[in-house]
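Might you be able to check the C-alpha cells below? Thank you kindly.
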Amino acid sequence: MLRCSLCGRQAAYNRRYAGVLLCDRCLVKSVERKFRRSVAEHSLISPSEKIAVAVSGGKDSVSCMHMLADYCGKKNCELVAITVDEGVKGYRGESVRIARENTELLGVPHFVVSFKQAFGVTLDEMVRIAEKKKTGFGPCTYCGVMRRSLLNQAARELGAQKLATAHNLDDEVQTIMLNYIRADFSRLYRLGPAYPAREGFVPRIKPLREVPEKEMALYALLKKINVHLGVCPYAGGIHSEIRDFINRLEENHTNSKFMMLRMFDRMKPQLLGAVPEFDMKKCERCGEPTSSESCKACELLEGLGFAKSVDLKLIPPAHF
C-alpha cells in the first residue's frame, strides 16, 4: 500500500509535479493552504472588505466560495455570490440550482443576473443570430464579453470592493497561451492574481490561480461538495486545442504548467512598455467604462441587431 509522504496514511493522490503522495486529508489541507497563501502573498483580501464571488455552480467556483466563506468569516469580511445565467438550454438551469443550494448552505447572499434580462437576448439566441448574420464571432466570444460585463456591473452595484473568480492553474496557463498566440499584449498584462483597479471596474482577484484543475476536482469530491459536472455545449475551438496541448505537455514533462506560470510572472513587468496608454471613457451606449467610444459588449450586441443593452437587474434566487 502506498503511503502519504506527509503523514503516512494511505495515499489517495500522486502529486507528480512535487514528487509526493498525499492522502485525502493532506490533499484537502494543501489546497486550502495554497488558497490562503495566495490571498496573503498578493494581499487579495483585507479585513472588513465586501467580497463578491462569481459562482457558476461548477467545481471550481463552488469550492472557491466555500473557502472564501471560511476565510471571510475569520477576517470579518462580507461575502456575496453572483451567478450569471447565460441562457444555455439544458445546461445552465441545473448549475444555477446547485449554486443556490450551496449559497443557502453557507448562508451567503446570492444574486442571479441573466443575459435575457440584461441584454434582451440569451446566449442561445445570440449564437443563432450570429450564425445567420455570419458575424465571424463564436459562442465563447459573446459569452466571455457579456459575462465579464455583467459580473462587473453586479459586483459594483452590490458595493463589493473585490470580485473573486475561481480561475485555477490550468485556466490561467491556457489564457496565457491563448494571448501569446493572439499577440494580445494588453490582455496579457492584465493577467495575474489580481487585476489592476480602474475607474468603473471592481478589482478582480484569483485565489485559486496556483491550484491545478485536477486537485480542485478532488477537493470538491473529498469535501463532499455538491457541484455541477456538466460541460457547456459550446465548449470547443481554439480554447480546447490549447487545453489539450498543455495537458499533453504536462503529461510528458511534469511541472510544465507551473513553469509556464512562473515564466509569465517573471516576464510580465517587461510588458508594460508594449501596452499602450489609454484614458478610460464611458460607453456612449450603456455608460460602462471602456477604452473606446463603445464597449465591446455593446459592439457585439449592435452587430446582432440590438441597439443597446438594457438596465441590469439583480435577481434574488427565490425569484429565479
User: Anything to note?
Assistant: The mean pLDDT is 92. The longest strand covers residues 78-85. The chain has one domain: 27-319.
